[in-house]
Amino acid sequence: MMRRNAAFEQALQELGWKVGHNITIEYRYGAGDHERMRKHAAELAALAPDVIFVVGGATEYMLRATRTVPIVFAGIADAIGGGFAESLTRPGRNATGFTNSEYSMSGKWLELLKEIAPHVTRVGALRDTISASAVAQFAVLQAVAPFLKIELTPLGMDDESEIARNVMRFAREPNAGLIAVPTAVAVVHRKLIIALAARHKLPAAYGFSYFVTDGGLISYGPEVIEPYRRAASYVDRILKGEKPADLPVQAPTKYELAINLKTAKSLGLDVSPTLLARADEVIE
Fold first, then answer.
1. Where would I find the beta strands (DSSP E) of the chain?
2. Tell me, which fold does domain 103-222+256-283 have in CATH?
């Protein structure tokens, strides 16, 4: 998080906005806690700032808190389905920003999991049951699973004990694998999820490369720093008088495939040269 915040502030500085000089930033962190996100959204709206930059699931709460303060969002899957914008080209409301994927991309995690671990026939999908995007992403996984001859099971992850309990139960049967649907809850609990996957010998696929950096097996998703830099450009334009309603919602410009060979070896998996050649990042 600190690295992403630093990239955001650096991009702002390059545009002429220096923290402590001509701009002030108030940070709040939801840490995957929906009640905390709701509380922080109300606090920030009450401050009536010139613009609010919000990431991921907190976007929903921020838009509930204010329909007047300009909002720039990042890290959401569906701006229109989530009610954040009327259209991608002309959002039409007080919010615009940058998506991190399309729901259809969710099937890629199953495809990659099956490719790197062909023996997997059962996959548990850890998902946040409150997040609208997680529900939609799971629906895509359900649609893709039969074509890959995979039995898909939803696993709740409301807290650490539920995650541990559900993964342990699911891992009792053979040929199991895991997907962590990428929401704020998964990010907050990623070290636990990765540790559980290792403990129970479960090949697992993730939505962001930092899961693989932390020991996860394989990931596919958007480059994680880029949206923060791009968000700074929209903050700049809004501070200079443009309206969110007129700034188009933009998709990622780069996706990354990351593989952790050390983790693959610990799971007894041989990664094919073809898959390795496609990877943007390989951790040995």
1. 52-55, 71-76, 95-99, 122-127, 151-156, 176-180, 204-206, 218-222, 255-260, 281-283
2. Rossmann fold (3.40.50)
211: phi then psi, degrees, rounded to nearest 5: -65, -40
Return the pLDDT at 135: 79
Instruction: State the Rg of the chain over Cα.
Output: 19
Using CA atoms, how far apart are residues 100 and 77, in angstroms rounded to an integer?
A: 6
pLDDT digits (tens, 9 = 90+) for 42-59: 999 999 999 999 987 788
**CA distance to 5, 13, 18, 47, 116, per residue, from 21 (Å):** 17, 10, 5, 19, 50
In contact, 116 and 214? CB cutoff 8 Å? no
One-letter identity of residue 233: S
CATH class as words, domain 2-99+224-253: alpha beta
- What residue ranges do the domains of the chain occupy? 2-99+224-253, 103-222+256-283
Distance between CA atoms of 104 and 72, rounded to whole angstroms?
Answer: 24
